[in-house]
Automatic annotation (TrEMBL):
<keyword id="KW-0547">Nucleotide-binding</keyword>
<feature type="short sequence motif" description="'HIGH' region">
    <location>
        <begin position="125"/>
        <end position="135"/>
    </location>
</feature>
<dbReference type="InterPro" id="IPR001278">
    <property type="entry name" value="Arg-tRNA-ligase"/>
</dbReference>
<dbReference type="InterPro" id="IPR005148">
    <property type="entry name" value="Arg-tRNA-synth_N"/>
</dbReference>
<feature type="domain" description="DALR anticodon binding">
    <location>
        <begin position="431"/>
        <end position="552"/>
    </location>
</feature>
<dbReference type="GO" id="GO:0005524">
    <property type="term" value="F:ATP binding"/>
</dbReference>
<dbReference type="InterPro" id="IPR001412">
    <property type="entry name" value="aa-tRNA-synth_I_CS"/>
</dbReference>
<keyword id="KW-0648">Protein biosynthesis</keyword>
<keyword id="KW-0030">Aminoacyl-tRNA synthetase</keyword>
<dbReference type="GO" id="GO:0005737">
    <property type="term" value="C:cytoplasm"/>
</dbReference>
<dbReference type="InterPro" id="IPR014729">
    <property type="entry name" value="Rossmann-like_a/b/a_fold"/>
</dbReference>
<keyword id="KW-0436">Ligase</keyword>
<keyword id="KW-0963">Cytoplasm</keyword>
<protein>
    <recommendedName>
        <fullName>Arginine--tRNA ligase</fullName>
        <ecNumber>6.1.1.19</ecNumber>
    </recommendedName>
</protein>
<dbReference type="InterPro" id="IPR009080">
    <property type="entry name" value="tRNAsynth_Ia_anticodon-bd"/>
</dbReference>
<dbReference type="Pfam" id="PF03485">
    <property type="entry name" value="Arg_tRNA_synt_N"/>
</dbReference>
<dbReference type="InterPro" id="IPR008909">
    <property type="entry name" value="DALR_anticod-bd"/>
</dbReference>
Length: 552
């Protein structure tokens, strides 16, 4: 980020002298071919019209001005139709160690968000059963995204939407009541549609112990309500416990029933009618989502009087914006992809720009493998691997890192055996070991009487080999990675970066025997460099909610 900002500042000053504003489509990025320098920009091609000269001519003039303006530039070259390729001096990259040392655990903290209020709603699983591994991936993505956004200067609030007012909760109550009757030895017929997991039997057993068999003599509706409320509380308490142990916290737990109690759903219907966006047809209430690009209008209230999920979702998002959020982020399972257009229509109907006010992140399925075989899962059938079981088996660190090892909308194979291996083939171990390896090196240095000291530009000038510079450049890219992850709502970019950094560190360690360099000053300089690497690894892992152990 320091390199990009430095180059942009120089270019903006050069353009301003010509009365030219920064062109909108200008890019500054690292070229794919490292022989083309550290950064390349198309600014001359973007500004050619305003400058009233050919792009290569403008690029040539800018080249001379850049070299004259900054001693940190070792070379500036004009390439192709007018690209400008810039190479920085070793001294520029060496100062990265000073930046990291000076900022410590705040290195990579930015203010690009400038306090913009963002709400991240994630997990939001129905309290009808324990969280499974799919929920775990959504939890890791949501929590890490919130951490990244906060690090980038956004004001973030996380939320769990409790679906406590729908049909699934009634089915949960009926399922528990059925099991209560079964446990009491009653003659019962198995319902066609109910939750079959062992946890339902356990809830029924606990409730019968508390209430006694008198529960079964109550009217059906009352008995079902008692079972539903008990099951909801117990399951929700379990969900909160599982998330805590997975290092995931929510600032707000928002029950769907609150929308009805506050009249928010009715108010939303009134608002839509007033805007001529809701109408009655065939005994149902419809929302004119086709006005906003949806392929068909959607039902809000069915002809029988039951509300659709969409009805409360509109009211819920209206409530979010009324609470003052600039952007709301919804993290959903990939099976909800068809729901995105209607939600964008909903946001547009609320008077917001869905392209800037709403961000929907889809999380693909997790294929859980054990012993080389896939584990089949179904919440309703009670066949699934719970998040708690996975965390107990492999640990929160391994689970979180694996969930973030790929883009959220990509399928993920999670091999329970592989993530427990202490080998370089295990990406979790690979990154954490980079931190532990540096800490071990410092312990060995102390044993040999090598004392680290505060880095200075003079000391760091020793870091001039290609391996030194590659590591320095990668450290300098960390703030850029945080910024990119925040702007694109993609926390997996931090995971990708950390694997690159860990790989560079492990290769560096192999090529450069730090404590056996034969040059005392070089040894101390490289210790300072590796200390910076450990700091960045630790900071990056923290954004993923993963620990950075000193020993492994």
């Amino acid at each position: 980020m320091r390199a990009t900002e430095h180059l942009r500042g120089l270019l903006e000053e050069a353009l301003q002298k010509r009365g030219i504003a920064w062109p909108a489509k200008t890019t500054i990025e690292a070229p794919r071919d490292k022989s083309h320098g550290d950064l390349a920009t198309n600014v001359a091609m973007m500004a050619t019209k305003a400058a009233k000269m050919p792009p290569r001519q403008l690029a040539g003039e800018l080249r001379e001005e850049l070299l004259a303006a900054s001693p940190d530039l070792a070379d500036v070259a004009v390439a192709g139709p007018g690209f400008i390729n810039v190479t920085f001096t070793p001294g520029f990259w060496q100062r990265t160690v000073l930046d990291v040392a000076g900022s410590g655990d705040r290195y990579g903290r930015l203010n690009i968000g400038e306090g913009t209020r963002i709400q991240v709603e994630f997990v939001s699983a129905n309290p009808t059963g324990p969280l499974h591994i799919g929920h775990g991936r959504g939890a890791a993505v949501g929590d890490s995204l919130a951490r990244v956004l906060r690090a980038a200067g956004f004001a973030v609030e996380t939320e769990y939407y409790i679906n406590d007012a729908g049909r699934q909760m009634r089915i949960l109550g009926q399922s528990i009541l059925y099991r209560c009757r079964e446990l009491a030895g009653k003659d019962v017929t198995e319902p066609e549609d109910y939750y079959r997991g062992d946890y339902v039997k356990e809830l029924a057993r606990e409730l019968l112990d508390r209430e006694g068999e008198g529960l079964l003599d109550l009217p059906e509706d009352k008995a079902t309500d008692i079972c539903r409320l008990y099951g909801e509380k117990e399951i929700l308490d379990g969900i909160k416990k599982d998330l805590r142990e997975f290092r995931v916290g929510h600032d707000v737990w928002f029950p769907e029933s609150k929308l009805f109690a506050a009249g928010a759903v009715a108010r939303t219907f009134d608002d839509l009618r007033a805007k001529n966006l809701a109408y009655d047809k065939d005994g149902a209430l419809w929302f004119a989502t086709t006005n906003f690009g949806d392929d068909k209008d959607r039902v809000l209230v069915k002809s029988g009087g039951d509300l659709t999920y969409f009805a409360s979702d509109i009211a819920y998002h209206d409530d979010k914006f009324r609470r003052g959020f600039d952007v709301v982020v919804d993290i959903w399972g990939a099976d909800h992809h068809g729901y995105v257009p209607r939600m964008k229509a909903c946001v547009a109907a609320l008077g917001r720009d869905p392209e800037t006010s709403l961000k929907v992140i889809l999380v693909q399925l997790v294929n859980l493998l054990k012993g080389g075989e896939q584990i089949a899962m179904s919440t309703r059938a009670g066949k699934f691997e719970t998040l708690a079981d996975v965390v107990a088996e492999v640990g929160a660190d391994a689970a979180r890192f694996m969930f973030l090892s790929r883009k959220s909308d990509s399928h993920l194979d999670f091999d329970l055996d592989a993530v427990k291996e202490k080998s370089m083939d295990n990406p979790v171990y690979y990154v954490q070991y980079a931190h532990a390896r540096v800490k071990s090196l410092f312990a060995k240095a102390a044993e040999r009487g090598v004392t680290p000291r505060e880095a200075t530009p003079e000391l760091l000038s020793k870091l001039d080999t290609p391996e030194d510079l590659e590591l320095l450049k990668l450290l300098e890219q960390y703030p850029d990675t945080v910024a990119s992850a925040a702007r694109t709502f993609a926390p997996h970019l931090v995971s990708f970066y950390l694997r690159d950094l860990a790989g560079q560190l492990h290769r560096y360690y192999t090529v450069n025997p730090v404590l056996a360099s034969g040059d005392a000053e070089l040894t101390v300089a490289r210790l300072a460099l590796l200390d910076a690497v450990a700091t960045v690894v630790r900071n990056g892992l923290d954004l993923l909610g993963v620990s950075a152990p000193d020993k492994m």
